Amino acid sequence: MTVPLTYLGIHLAFLVPPILILGWLAFRRDRVWWGVRPLSGLGAMIVLAVPYTTPFTNRLIPAGVWWYGEGAVLATVWHTPIEEYLFFVLQPILTALWLFHVRPTADRPLAIPRTHRLLGVAGGLAIAVVGLVLLDDTATYYLGWLFLWAGPVLAVQWGFGSTYLWDVRRSLLVAVAVPTLYLWFVDRIAIELGVWVISDTYTTGYALLGLPIEEALFFLVTNLFIVQGITMYIWVLERIDGVSAWTNASPRFPTVSDDQ
User: Fold this and answer.
1) Which of 14, 77, 137, 183 is the 20 to 30 A CA-CA neighbour of 96?
2) Could you tell me whether strands 76-77 and 80-81 are parallel, antiparallel, or unpaired per DSSP bridges?
């Protein structure tokens, strides 16, 4: 049976409109991140996201972890639909544009305690190790690959800037939570419509707000990648330039902080 809405239709109905609205608001408003720094940070996230996520989906799709409904996709490259590759671009744009309005910022130098760096790396690597262990069970196959795939990125991000990320934790929570909840909503609609189907065999059977826990964690983790990456990117550029977000006179950069 042909699905009532295609994967491209999901993009056009649920991703493109909020991207256009958030982009227009970011361009019009003063108290947002805009310009070369945040937009180049977004560009860097997209450049990293596409090649890093491509092997992940091309490993799990042919394994039968998920598949797509009849007529839901236009074509595939390798084992992944072209709409999925488009999602690798659209999700960072959506999440980043929301982040630009939230503007997590704290006045902290790049130097952070070595212990914090080691704990950050250890935390990310621990997630990867848990993922490796979970691969031994069919029911945790999707979860295992998700943890194994996410762990190295989190290790790098937390190892580099865990202290700074903790300083901006309240704004970070808002920046991650809103697009994650929205994408949970979109994912659940797509699953209900049969645009894609998540295997019962390779998942735990646990759900969060009606969504398979693996899918919920995927969007949470990927939005963490984007928000943490761009936030630290801007932090590094500000410190290199000797510009404090507290004293920067430009209206296109934030003037408030989480911790003070």
Assistant:
1) 77
2) antiparallel
109-113, 223-227, 238-242, 246-250: which has the minimum mean pLDDT? 246-250
CA separation (Å) from 167 to 5, 105, 122, 231?
Answer: 42, 8, 19, 12
Per-domain boundaries in the chain: 7-241
Lowest mean pLDDT among 109-113, 133-137, 213-217, 220-224: 109-113
Q: Residue 160 half-sphere exposure, CB side, CA atoms within 13 Å? A: 13
Model pLDDT for residues 120-177, shown as the tens digit of each residue = 999 999 999 999 999 999 999 999 999 999 999 999 999 999 999 999 999 999 999 9
The two most distant CA atoms of the chain are separated, in Å, by 60
Residue 112 exposure: Cα atoms within 13 Å on the Cβ side: 23
- Rounded to whole angstroms, the Cα distance separating 70 from 81 reads 13
**Cβ count near 229 (within 10 Å):** 24
